[in-house]
Design goal:
With 121 residues, this protein is α+β, with helices and mostly antiparallel strands. The protein has a domain at 38-113. It is 26% helix and 17% strand. The protein is built from four helices and two strands. The protein has helices at 8-15, 73-82, 97-105, 109-113, and strands at residues 44-52, 58-68.
Length: 121
């Protein structure tokens, strides 16, 4: 029976020949400095993400989302509609790109479990 693996990183890790012997990449810090909040360099604003259908009807809507000011309305709509998690209109719904990025950056085990990153220890 065919099964969809909801963890695409596992597939990519196998394709890349991920090693179980502690191998993997050891990325060095490049865009940020230790001890400084990387979000402090970004100018943020609250806006609405609204997507309209062909006939002008609203097909997606989420208000008061925090986005980098430099992002376009299209980028806002795509990120909020496709990548924010949680049911719309509930406290579980993400409301900021900071939250979205934090999910991945706060869990360094994602890359380690896939065998793509080396344990810094």
């Amino acid at each position: 029976m065919w099964r969809l693996d909801w963890r695409p990183w596992r597939h990519r890790a196998r394709q890349a020949g991920a090693r179980k012997d502690g191998g993997g990449l050891s990325p060095r810090r490049y865009f940020t400095q230790a001890g400084l909040d990387p979000f402090s360099d970004v100018e943020w604003e609250h806006r609405s993400a609204v997507i309209y259908g062909e006939k002008g009807e609203v097909v997606f809507e989420q208000h008061d989302v925090e986005m980098p000011k430099a992002w376009t309305p299209l980028a806002t709509n795509v990120v909020v509609s496709k990548y924010f998690r949680g049911p719309l209109g509930t406290p579980q719904r993400e409301t900021s790109v900071r939250q979205l990025i934090g999910v991945w950056s706060d869990d360094p085990l994602v890359g380690r479990r896939a065998g793509l990153l080396r344990d810094p220890g």
